[in-house]
Amino acid sequence: MAGAAVFGVTTNTVTTTPPEPPQPAATGTATFHDDTAPDDYRDQAVREDGVTVTGGWLPRDVAEQVTAAAALIWLRRRRDYQPHPTQPDDTDLTPLPPTVTAVQAALADSPTPPPPDENAAPFEALPAGGVGLTGPGTLPVGRGLLVTAILAGQRHSSTSLIVTQATLALLLGPAAETLGRRLPLTIVDTVDEAAQLLQPAGPVTGEAIPGQRQGGTSSRHGHRKIVLLNDHDGNEQQLKHLAETGTAAAALVVVLGEQPDGPNWHAGSTGYLRDPHHPDMPGPRLCILDWTATTDLLTVIASPGPAPAHPDSGRPPLPYAGSPELPLPRQVARHEPTRLSTASRQRLHLRVLGDPQLLIDGEPLTIRRSAGLQVLVYLAIHPSGADTAQLTDAIWPGLPRHSLTGRLYTALSDLRSTIRTASDLPVIDHSDDRYRLNPAHIEVDLWQLHATIHQAAATLAHTATAWQTVLDAYPADLATTRTWPWLDPHREATRRRVIDLCATLAAKEPDPHRFLQLLQDGIHIDPYNADLHGLAGRALIDLGELEAAVELQQQHQQSLLRVGLDSEFSPRVSFTAPDAGR
């Protein structure tokens, strides 16, 4: 899937995978390696083939497709945002579901693997024609197959999924009705309907549309259909007929339960499959998910539309838009390390726009732990401070808080020690379990940006000068080189404040050429935003540059095409009425 280019580096990695099928055990929370692990251990960890999250396990390829789908969510939000001079709308900046952020964090530090072998896809590991699944892992594996098949269909248009309504309800529970309508799959009521869709003589159709109730089958060479049902969807004769039809159509029929005349494989609780006729032969391990993890993942896979809010996904606090409050009293820790520097007049500067760095007298300070760097950036975004729970939830998504307090304290201790080796200035204040940056001793470029935006928005003249001041204060996106999942809402909100100002100053600009230049600057900051492109296109038309307006629209569509959003693009401003005013 498109959009993967936005991913970068963090410390969290994929979980290690047992070399042999383990004994049945409950799947735990997202597993990461310790920041202090040597590099060779980290390299070994990221070569493993899966990610464990609360409620399940995802093969590496599936996890990567989830992260790509998450990237598309944020790209779609960028495209659809309408800059507003006075009343910005950030109601869509809801964090993604916890299972998704846990997967993102787990893969963020992982090097890009070689392209997967199509023959090694999970469906290729199942018996040709189909299989029945029994055992304690039947439903978790069924949910995993549902997610895997939908992702495969989005990645390769030659794959499509057919599922019975009863099976969808069995796997998704109450969410089946709302999510089913928004998922790219075909829903049927009976096994006979599924068999009809596999008939090669059926009418040729395009891709499966979200939640379609019925339809023909594609006769294109190589198109792979997957049918997912349970053993109560039909009687023995119907299931046999479906299996025969599926075999003739080179489709894969997966029955959650006993399949008449077999083959039937045992599904373990950890996702390993075993053929009873070949008990010594190692079987494949498939994706396993519980109900919550499945609905979390399907929420980002589904087509845009209203989705139930996750209880842990409240509206995030937006980046600070003013000067920090007075510093809280500093709590002096016991056994502070000896300060190796006596430069009491040093000034520290934290740069979070672009590649995050802490500068002391203009020289970057090496921060060993990613968690320590994340703390600095998080506190820069939240000048009023953050408590232990907020920091641990952000830095280590998916892990229980009680297991993370010591890890946070270790990261903070190492961070403070690192800073004190170069400066005697107290940077992080701590009081009543709340941490904050000390504005008396550290400058933050993000704080300066917000102050600059506020001053520029209040200007009544000299828009060019005001805008240039903001451009100088905004060299790059917030922590642009990092892909920590908690950053996404804040990075997007910060970008929006800049293009909001662009709209504000453009609305005040009487010169049409300067008006156009402001919009073009805004497009440079966010090349995906449709509203800015529409306004700039209208400005070009007003100036008699119709060809340039069409070229601008085509460039925008190509940009959207490269990230997988082309089919959803619809310009807000028409390019066909050159006599209309802007």
TrEMBL record:
Give the superkingdom in one word. Answer: Bacteria
Q: What is the lineage of its organism?
A: Bacteria, Bacillati, Actinomycetota, Actinomycetes, Micromonosporales
Where composition is biased (Low complexity), the residues are 1-17
Bias class Basic and acidic residues marks the residues at 32-41
Region annotated Disordered, chain positions: 1-41, 303-343
Pro residues: which segments have biased composition? 305-319
Protein known as:
Bacterial transcriptional activator domain-containing protein
Q: Which organism is it from?
A: Micromonospora humida
Query: Coiled-coil ranges per the record?
Result: none
